[in-house]
Fold this protein.
Amino acid sequence: MLRLHANDPLDKTAMKILEDSDLFEISAEHLDKDHLMKIMPEIEVLVVRSATKVTSEVIEAGKKLKLIARAGVGLDNVDVESARKHNIIVRNTPGANAISVAELTFGLLLGLVRHIPRGTYGIKEGKWEKKELKGVEIFGKTIGLIGFGAIGREVAKRAIAFGMNVCAFDPFVKETDMEVELMTTVESLLEKSDVISLHVPLTPETKHIIGEKEISLMKDGVIIINASRGGTIDEQALYNGLVSGKVSGAALDVFEVEPPSDELRRKLVGLGNVICVPHVGASTSEGQKRVGLEMAKIIVEECKVMI
Ligand code: NAD
């Protein structure tokens, strides 16, 4: 039997698949770093979502560690290089939560342009701000997708259904059969788009892919949506753009610092033209079930050959 520790919660059905495989001795509980470090020497399979940071220190403590299973897409919480050095397999579940994130992206966009959060809070506070809450349509507008992978493509499908024009920039995607204009440079996308939505992983190349210079190239009154990773947008530059009016609104699921509790981010989320949610892009029953099932199947497949 292999000792498997799930440090972040997995869907119930997924846990059942792992239990029924009879391959594992399972523990499932979120341990803080110090406690995790203590059990790492005995662990052969470590399962995480985004909350656990699998640093090189954690990996090096895992003397018997064979597999790191990241239930979800982004691998920015796993030191993949260190895992590779120690011959530890790293697996994730690309695409499994794409629909959930794409739907949230549209929730954010529509919430922003139709002032849904402010309308809600106004009514709860006894206000009827009908005149103040005139919105804009997204029909006929151009949405620019930075990153055209699984989520970017799901967003594109929905944007087309809403009658939007769609363009995308992704250096690794050279063709598509969708009604999407692939741009050869990020700058051309920035200049063309009324709405810019990010769907890239956080890498050294995508860190602050939207900064002061990029915002200056955008259309006046542009809308920015980020349900990818905090750190892809330079939030000081975004704040400046929102205050100056260059950016008419931003809708954020992710922040470079989460929760956004420092001074800059308190100022950012306090702006009237910012709406936000606490990194819930993948948090749907269906998405988590899909991620969990896929992860459990991958873990069983990988581990069958280890025993
Ligand atoms: P994916 O790997 O299918 O797509 C990412 C795309 O980004 C790829 O096509 C890649 O070529 C492209 N890319 C890489 N570097 C780029 C660059 N410099 N410029 C433009 N494009 C670039 O991944 P996905 O499933 O579409 O997820 C995208 C990202 O969304 C994830 O990496 C993760 O950071 C984020 N995400 C967020 C949540 C959430 O809860 N908000 C949930 C899941 C994923």
Remarks:
- The chain has two domains: 2-96+286-306, 98-276.
- The chain has twelve helices and twelve strands.
- The chain has a mean pLDDT of 97.
